[in-house]
Specification:
With 72 residues, the chain is an alpha+beta fold. It contains two helices and seven strands. The protein has one domain: RNA-binding S4 domain (Structural Genomics Hypothetical 15.5 Kd Protein In mrcA-pckA Intergenic Region, Chain A). Helix 1 crosses helix 2. Helices cover 22% and strands 36% of the residues. The radius of gyration is 11 Å and the shape is globular. Strands 1-7-6-3-4 form a five-stranded mixed β-sheet, with no helix packed on it. A two-stranded antiparallel ribbon has the order 2-5.
Length: 72
């Protein structure tokens, strides 16, 4: 699966905010459900914390959507 870079404007971004920023979900509620159901991986590991702080270089993966690198 091909990796895409998503540029953020800040040093860090919460996982649920990143999913919205990247256009992977429409609402925070959608993000919360996907994260709680174990559908989101960060750096290859399932992440269940929607407040997980992401920084430049982190990889976010969602089955069926792709792999997204946090960039600045």
């Amino acid at each position: 699966m091909e990796e895409q870079s998503i540029k953020i404007k800040t040093e860090i971004i919460k996982l649920e905010q990143f999913l919205k920023w990247a256009g992977l979900v429409q609402t925070g509620g959608e993000a919360k459900i996907l994260i709680q159901e174990g559908e989101v991986k960060v750096n290859g590991a399932i992440e269940l914390r929607r407040g997980r702080q992401l920084k430049e270089g982190d990889l976010v993966e969602m089955e069926g959507y792709g792999i997204f690198r946090v960039a600045r």
